[in-house]
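User: Working on a comparison across species. This one is Conjugal transfer protein TraX from Dorea formicigenerans. Can you predict its structure so I can line it up against the others?
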Amino acid sequence: MNRDQIKFLAIITMTCNHIANIFLTPGTLLFEVMIDIGYFTAITMCYFLVEGYDYTHDKKKYGERLLLFGVISFIPFCLAFGMIQMNMLCTLFLCFLILKVMEMSIGKWEKWIVILIIIFVSLYSDWALLAPVFTILFAKSKENRIKTAISFGIGACLFAGFNYLSNLESMSTGGALIHALCSGIGPVAAGIIILFCYNGKKSDHAGKASKWFFYIYYPAHLLFLWALHQLCML
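Assistant: Here's the predicted structure for Conjugal transfer protein TraX from Dorea formicigenerans:
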């Protein structure tokens, strides 16, 4: 599979997650399955953010695109999910800033202080804390297959652990454990596909239209799902 095929797969799984969050009843089997399918996306996008950061010819424009579409997506995200919070593109922009800081010629302690500040800011965004950690893991393990596999494993365990702890109050210990294990399937699947199916190349037919599609789809699908939900409630 090439890069664009995996990104399209990530878009499909993300959309499944968003449909479940907006339209389905929490706790039902279909809701849980579609939610868990969607957990494939975030860790995948963090991986490709790190890869894209190294490959891009213009890091400034790369960051500007993330910020621009993060701002554009703010209102659609808030409308779709009924809360005021920064969206995943904003989170990816914060992760981009972390990569910038990591390559800066400043002291080690200064770097980590700035990185910790950025991670703190992510608390107000989608995939808080986790996406920055995924990004740091992949940045430290790039071009090393074993380290990348370990990074995916750590990422999946962290996410499953987060879900376990967050569900302990509302579920039994066993229920929270099952929920956590299921939530880790998406990140594990992402690791398997990237490690064993990804050919390291972009699509032969990829062009500017393909690149911009990934940015435009995010706010567009959120706005569409919100509008559809409003119509269903009439």
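For your comparison, note: Residues 4 and 210 are 8 Å apart (CA to CA).

User: Helpful, thanks.
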